[in-house]
Amino acid sequence: MKRFNQWRQELKNKNRKVFTLNKKRILMNAFLLAFSFTVGCAHYPVNQPMREVRLDAGYRSATMKSPENSDSLLLYLTFSGGGMRAAALSYGVLEELRKAEIVLDGRKRRLLDEVDGISSVSGGSFTAGYYGLFGDRIFKDFESKFLEKNIQRGLVLRVLLNVANWVRFLSPTFARSDLAAEYYDKHIFEGGTFGDIAARKGPFIIINATEMTHGTRVGFTQETFDVICSDLSRFSVARAVAASSAVPMALTPITLRNYAGTCGFKTPEGFEKVLEGRDILERQFYLHNDMAPFLDPEKKPYIHLVDGGLGDNLGLRAVLDRVISRGSVWETIKGTPMERVHKVVFIVVNAETRPDTKWDKTESIPTFGVMLAAYSSIAIDRFNEETIALLKESVGSWANEIKTERCKGGAVSTSPGSCGDIQFYVVEVKFDALKDETERRHFKRLPTALKLPREEVDKTRDAAHRILAESEEFQRLLLDLK
Hints:
By secondary structure, this protein is an alpha/beta fold. Helices cover 48% and strands 12% of the residues. The protein has helices at residues 2-41, 83-99, 123-134, 138-147, 151-160, 163-168, 176-187, 194-199, 222-227, 237-244, 271-275, 282-291, 317-326, 329-333, 368-406, 437-444, 454-469, 472-481, and strands at residues 73-79, 101-104, 107-110, 115-121, 204-211, 217-219, 254-257, 302-306, 343-350, 423-430.
C-alpha cells in the first residue's frame, strides 16, 4: 500500500510537470503569435493618394479666406522653433493680438481676426496647429492640454509602460516619431486633419518640415502635396507637427509615400526654362531644382521628413519662397484679392537661444554635448539672421513694384485707398527686444525641450506681451489702423 501511494504521487508530479510545460509552451506560442502579428502590422499611417489635381479644392490658401477678413490688410505670423519656449512665446503673441482692437473698413475688430496665415516650425507648430484646428478655444485649454504638460515624460512613459510598443519598435516601418504622432493626436489635436482646418475658413496654417536627403523645406499645403499626388485634407495635423518637430537623433523621420505622376499634376509654367538657368534669378533656380527629385517616384518613392528648423527655423521662408518662385511679388498677388491690399504685416516670432560663451575663456576641449549643440545651432542662428535681412531688404522693392503695377498709366498717388497706398510692417518678437540684459539672458538660456515649468511658461507669455507693447513697429501699425 505504501509503495502504491508512492507510485501514485510520482505519477501526479509527472503529470503536473507535463501540464506546466505544456502551459508554458502555449503561452510562449501565444506570445510569439502576438509578437509576429504586432511586428507585421506595426506601420506608420500612409498619406493617401489623389486621383486628380483640383486647384479649386483642397487645403489651399485660395479656398480658405474668410469673408469677414478684409482685403486691405494682409497679416502673416511666423512661429519659430524652440520647443516649449517657442510654443509659449507664440501663444503670448496670439493673446496680445486678441486684445488689440483696430478699425478696418469702418468696423471695429480684434487684430487677431485679421490674421491671414501662420507659418511655423518645430515647437511653434504646436501652437499654430492647435489654433488652426480650434480657433479661440486655444485660450481656454491650450495651457492645460499642452503648455503645462511635461510632454517629454508622457512620450517616455508611453514607451516604457506599454510592452506592445517595445515590440512595435522592432518593425523597420515604425519608430519614435510615429509613436509621438499618435500621442499628439490623442492628447493634443484630437484626431484633427488639415481638412478640419480648411473647414474653419482660416487662418491658413503652413506647418513646415525638412526633407532629410536634400534639405528641402516641405510645407504642409496642398500645393506641395500636388507634386506627389497626395491628398493633404485627410492627413493628420499631429503627424505634420511630429515631422516639423522631429529633432534628429532624439526623434526619427516621418515618412510620406510619393505617388507623383498619377494625378495629372503639371509643373509650373516655365519650369523647364528655369532648370535650364535661362532669364531667372539664382534663388528661383534653386527652388525649382528642389522640386525636381519629387517628380520621379521610381527614384524617390519615399520622402523622409525631419525638424523644420533645419531648413528654416523662423517659418519665414514659406512666404519668401512663394514670391521668389513666382518671379515677383506682383505675379504672386495679381488676379487675387491681395491685389487690392494697402497694408502688409509680418510678425516674426523668434524664440532664439543664446550661445554659450564660457568655453571662449578656457583652454579645455569642449564636451561632446557642447559641440553637438553648437553644430546644430550655429547654422540655424546664422540662417535666421540672413532670412530676416532678406525680408527687410525685399519689402521696399515689393512696395515700389506694387505701386508701379497698380498705378500703371497714371499718377502714383499715396493717399488712403489709392493705387500707391501700400505699406509694409516687419514686427520682430524676440528676446533681444527686452530691455533688461539679465532677463534677456534668462529667456535665451531656457532649454529647447517639450517641457517647461509653469512659472517659466507664464514669464515667456508675459515677455511676448511686453515686447509687442514696446515695439515701435507694432505700435505704428496699431496707430495707422486706428
